[in-house]
Design a protein that fits this description.
Elements: E1 15-20, H1 36-50, E2 54-58, H2 68-71, H3 77-87, E3 91-93, H4 100-108, E4 114-116, H5 131-138, E5 143-147, H6 161-165, E6 171-173, H7 175-189, E7 195-199, H8 208-215, E8 220-223, H9 227-234, H10 249-258, E9 263-264, E10 268-272, E11 282-285, E12 293-297, H11 299-311, E13 314-318, H12 331-342, E14 346-349, H13 352-360, E15 369-370, H14 374-381, H15 387-390
Parallel strand pairs: 1-2, 1-5, 2-4, 3-4, 5-6, 7-8, 7-13, 8-9, 13-14, 14-15
Antiparallel strand pairs: 10-11, 10-12
Length: 395
């Protein structure tokens, strides 16, 4: 078990380096379209500030290319402005990750003040395991806090080399990461039964190890999303022009054999002639005719899946069940989300698009836990070791 911010001694006047995950979605103009990840960090940040700490925050944002013009929307200024409103506190953002400005600003911090460093991926060493960068960042603070669960599976400098360079100083996880680990450990070691898994999304190939791990733990798995059509094709069924992974049919057959008696596939589908022609939508059972595309689970499948949710004591859901971002094709994802919101069991949303969906539906607060890390969630469940957590002090 890892130490958390609750285990830290007196914090008054201490400079605390906090690795947060402020990798929020932006529109074309660079405006934040969803600040869920910023809000998720507030409990940790407020706890530290209330105890008199001065905060130095680090995060990545987007996928910078090194082109100053193209990377302009990925500066941390907009994020810092949103954080200031949410914290009701002044937040200063600087255009440097390390260097004289970062050093001077960090040293000048007073208790209760907040400094946001520039996007760590603007520094070429962040994703190149640059030990020197880790050592430079380490000089900025007295304590390291990892509250970036969505990046815990990465080996970036701010996640691994930085805390390694701070060995001997307190290194803990924040309240967000602590909650993520608590929920995941509960799912993996002490699940309530019946334990139901719901899997959607586009590709079987993205989740092979995750599915295998899940099949060894759950009592039943419901399949939806575009991956449905790879599984159905693997069974010899016609899926029309639906999206599938033709080179993963053998993998799908292997998973179906492994999950015999556990895997449930849709019995009917909402189909269209073209993705941008919702007026052509109709429901079919069984096979999908040539020239038609599956975009959502059908009403019979919705009834089966929501009934399974009602019967489950614990549900883990990763991946939407249809093209939910287009309202005409969102009924399956919405119905299952509603069923989870009404469930008396433990409901765990595995980050990524699923988290986005329940947030858009206004149901996030009705779930037991909505993970902030899609990829990290998958890798933790499938048993991938996280070097970032290995650098955190044990209790």
């Amino acid at each position: 078990m890892k130490k958390t911010v609750a285990d830290l001694p007196d914090l008054y006047g201490k400079r605390v380096l906090v690795r947060v995950d402020f990798n929020v979605p932006l529109d074309k103009a660079g405006n934040i379209t969803n600040d869920r990840r910023i809000r998720a960090a507030l409990p940790t940040l407020k706890t530290l500030l209330d105890r008199g700490a001065a905060l130095i925050l680090m995060s990545h944002l987007g996928r910078p290319t090194g082109d100053a013009t193209a990377d302009a929307p990925f500066t941390m200024v907009t994020v810092a402005q949103r954080l200031a409103k949410l914290l009701n506190n002044h937040v200063r953002a600087i255009n440097q990750v390390v260097g004289p400005l970062a050093t001077n600003e960090a040293q000048a911090l007073k208790p209760g003040e907040v400094l946001v460093l520039e996007n760590v991926r603007f520094h070429p060493g962040e994703q190149k395991k640059d030990q020197a960068l880790g050592a430079e960042l380490a000089k900025l603070g007295d304590i390291y806090v990892n509250d970036a669960f969505g990046t815990c599976h990465r080996k970036d400098v701010s996640m691994v080399a930085l805390p390694a360079a701070m060995k001997g100083k307190p290194r803990v996880v924040g309240l967000l990461v602590a909650k993520e680990l608590e929920i995941l450990d509960r799912l993996l070691s002490k699940p309530q039964r019946p334990l139901l898994g719901i899997l959607g999304g586009g590709k079987v190939s993205d989740k092979i190890l995750f599915i295998k791990s899940l099949l060894s733990r759950v009592d039943k798995v419901l399949i939806g999303g575009a991956m449905t059509y790879t599984f159905l094709k693997a069974q010899g069924m016609n899926v029309g022009g639906s999206r599938l992974e033709a080179d993963k049919l053998d993998v799908a057959r292997e998973l179906l054999e492994m999950g015999k008696g556990k895997i449930t596939l849709p019995v009917d589908h909402l189909i269209v002639e073209k993705i941008d022609a919702p007026q052509t939508a109709r429901v079919v059972e069984g096979e999908i005719p040539d020239g038609w595309i599956g975009v959502d689970i059908g009403p019979k499948t919705i009834a089966i899946y929501t009934d399974e949710v009602r019967k489950a004591a614990m549900v883990m859901w990763n991946g939407p069940l249809g093209k939910f971002e287009d309202e005409p094709y969102s009924k399956g994802t919405r119905a299952v989300a509603d069923a989870l919101a009404a469930s008396k069991g433990v409901t765990i949303i595995g980050g990524g698009e699923t988290a986005e969906a329940v947030e858009n539906f206004g149901l996030a607060d009705k779930m037991t836990h909505v993970s902030t890390g899609g990829g990290a969630f998958l890798e933790y469940v499938q048993g991938t070791p996280f070097p970032a957590l290995a650098e955190i002090d044990d209790k």
